[in-house]
Amino acid sequence: MSNGPYYHGECRCGAVTLMLCGTPLALGRDCRGEGFSFWPLDTLQFGMGLEEIVARDVSDQERRLACGRCGETLVVEHERVGVLALPGDVCDVAPGEAAAKDRVHGELHALGYHLDA
Questions:
Q1: Higher pLDDT, residue 106 or 32
Q2: Who's near 108: CB < 8 A, 6+ residues apart?
Q3: What are the structural domain ranges in the chain?
Q4: Contact (Cβ atoms closer than 8 angstroms) between residue 67 and residue 88
Q5: Does residue 13 register a pLDDT over 80?
Q6: Distance CA 48, CA 102 (A)
Q7: d(Cα 56, Cα 41) in Å, to the nearest integer?
Q8: CA–CA distance, 100 with 102 (Å, rounded to integer)
Q9: What is the pTM for the complete model shown?
Q10: If you classify domain 6-115 with CATH, what class do you get?
């Protein structure tokens, strides 16, 4: 457990809850315009509903974790880059709360994300 900042999130039906410890790396949008926050892999902890999570490999670079009850995507893992992408409706992060990490910006762009300034 971290003594630093943390963020709480959950799926639409509330069956799965999660917590992120630390500061997001960046905020941005995918190619459909949906908001995401980006986090280091080691910041995620699940609270309730771990048994409800359904994992799906989308490609060799992307794995999606979703709630098995409501179907909402909770996390998109980009293990090669070392980043988790969380949809804005799962974990709401205010602009200005992200720690701009230039090392991941180029790699996130390559994955199709557009980062906020």
A1: 32
A2: 26, 28, 38, 81, 83, 115
A3: 6-115
A4: no
A5: yes
A6: 33
A7: 17
A8: 6
A9: 0.81
A10: mainly beta
